[in-house]
Design goal:
The protein is an alpha/beta fold. It has twelve helices and 13 strands. It has one domain: Alpha-Beta Barrel (TIM Barrel). An eight-stranded parallel beta sheet has the order 2-3-4-5-6-7-8-9. The longest helix has 16 residues. It starts with a strand and ends with a strand. The chain binds (4S)-2,6-dioxohexahydropyrimidine-4-carboxylic acid and zinc ion. One of its GO terms (biological process) is 'de novo' UMP biosynthetic process.
Length: 346
Amino acid sequence: MMTAITIRRPDDWHVHFRDGAMLRTVVPFTARHFGRAIVMPNLVPPVTTAAAAAAYRERILAAVPAGARFTPLMTAYLTEATDPADLVAGHRDGVLTAAKLYPAHATTNSQFGVSSIAAIREVLAAMERAGMPLLVHGEVTDPAIDIFDREAVFIDRVLAPLLREHEGLKVVMEHITTREGADFVRAHAPRLGATITPQHLMLNRNALLVGGIRPHYYCLPVLKRGLHQEALRNAATGGEACFFLGTDTAPHMKHLKENACGCAGVFSAPVALACYAQVFAEEGALERLEAFASLNGPAFYGLPPNEERITLAEAEAAPVPPLPVGAEGELVTFEPPRLGWAVISA
Ligand code: DOR
Ligand code: ZN
């Protein structure tokens, strides 16, 4: 018999929508399945002020297909020049849900990010007083640190001291990729939460590197070894409230990924929800999919869960053809080695 599951409409607590033609191409895929999404601010130039976030939100809303009910939740990109008053006013006015900390040079468009946490101490203190969550890209950029260790070292050097200094600050460790990340989040819940991507649940670094290099599986933080994948699968499917859905869907043009110096990011929006369902089914945890996808995130952010429902079922999911983006080229959608689930009504 076909297995199917109906859950409250989920939210995606970590997306990249970009801008312009690419934004118009990708927004409908997220809006089709998700009620809300936390929108990353790493445009060029980055979204650093409440006014820029409000304008960006309008451009996103203009790309939502007629009839879809979808709410983008905006974030500001922290720099060493961020004005705490602007940030907190943006939060109070309902424009900014959170702010994102990119360590400078850690990932795509992070060159405007923060080199020294001490330089944003006042900003963090203001966010703490305002109850505004901090979202972190949790990797150090020290060239001496191996790329596979950068998350664990970030926890020791940056995140643990930051949580001690700002005891009331709510923090999301975005896209955790390691056992150390999952354990650290558990130990500091409920003021610390984490998102987990479909690719880090479905793949480990062998998928990226064995039998040829697969640029469409390259993202940051990079896929880790199998024991970390196992730890993430246990975290996501185990029913703990501190872990929630965040796809990190991150579109890049095909020719920039299939490149001698390919860029980081996996465009997963069209298939992400089906991927999560498959992982939960494989783990015998389908009854906990709704908590991960639709309940834990809203609870962390202090928002009500969505009231609509969405149904997924076991089915051979059709591959998503390359998507043309204006005159620039095309996007390639994440293709896991096997996908045996699909959204059947949204
Ligand atoms: O792989 C990634 N892509 N990781 C990030 O942190 C940023 C993202 C992007 O913007 O492309
Ligand atoms: Zn991201």
